[in-house]
Amino acid sequence: QVQLVESGGGLVQSGGSLRLSCAASGIIFSMYVMGWYRQAPGKQRELVALIRESGSTNYVDSVKGRFTISRDNAKNTVYLQMNSLKSEDTAAYYCNAVRVATSVVYWGQGTQVTVSS
Going by C-beta distance under 8 Å and a sequence separation of 6 or more, which residues neighbour residue 95? Predict the structure, then answer.
């Protein structure tokens, strides 16, 4: 059974920091592209950052220079370090795992991040 379990969300003041974690089980973690998505009320879910099996990363423009995605294959965990948070970062954040070779996709249940101005 595959599980992606996010943690680390919460309420933080503008300018503050949070670190999200996503612990994966039931998959060969190192073979998956891992991503963080977010969805604010009334908006579409958007890709925030992803990290490939190789360790290469991509970010949406709005978080470049503020967020850092990383992975620890020994712990089957992907992280999202979020600094200089803004009110527009408020959203539910979801962990995503993609096995490109087979097009298999898994999602976590989400964790809420609320940034107060």
Answer: 4, 6, 20, 22, 24, 34, 35, 36, 78, 107, 108
Checking if the pLDDT of 58 tops 90, the result is yes
> What are the two backbone dihedrals, phi and then psi, of residue 88, each rounded to the nearest 5 degrees?
-75, -5
Structure tokens at 91: 């959203």
Distances (CA, A) of 37 to 74, 96, 117: 23, 7, 22
Cβ–Cβ < 8 Å for 25, 3: yes
26-42 residues labelled b (16+ CB within 10 A) or e (exposed) = ebebeebbbbbbbeeee
Q: Summarize the confidence of residues 74-89 as an average pLDDT.
A: 98
Q: Give the residue among 57, 100, 101, 104 at the shortest CA–CA distance from 78.
A: 57
The position carrying tokens 């954040």 is 93
Position 42 scores a pLDDT of 95
pLDDT for res 117: 87
